[in-house]
Hints:
By secondary structure, the chain is mainly alpha-helical. Helices cover 64% and strands 5% of the residues. It contains six helices and three strands. A hairpin with a 5-residue loop joins strand 2 and strand 3. It comes from Maricaulis virginensis. One of its GO terms (molecular function) is DNA binding. Residues 4-73 form the HTH merR-type domain.
Amino acid sequence: MRALLRRGELARQLACNIETIRYYETIGLIGPTERSSGGHRLYSKADRTRLRFVLRLRELGFSLDEVRSLIAMVERGAHTCGQIADMADAHRRNIRRKIEDLQRLERSLSGMLAGCHRGDTPDCAILEALAPE
């Protein structure tokens, strides 16, 4: 790997969109190390590592504010493993709540579908369940 990468090369290596990198730059999560004489943004190995960190956090469902907070904590060295574990655990609990909510929605829709006769008439048990009189 060369010492510095252009944006397209960085995007290819990390399998992300150039627009994603551009957006993360715009909101200050990442930034190029320098620019080439032609004005191209150049990224270091540290930039690549940071972007991979951001992408992984986003894959896990962390919000941009949470990502920003974690980066700030790590960069300042103002974190303990316990604090990071607490953040991860809070996020996991939030995911579980969302899963429970989705399961409730799925059960509700399943109940509506069970009452549906799928006939050729305009009378629809699903519509009646959604907008009871």
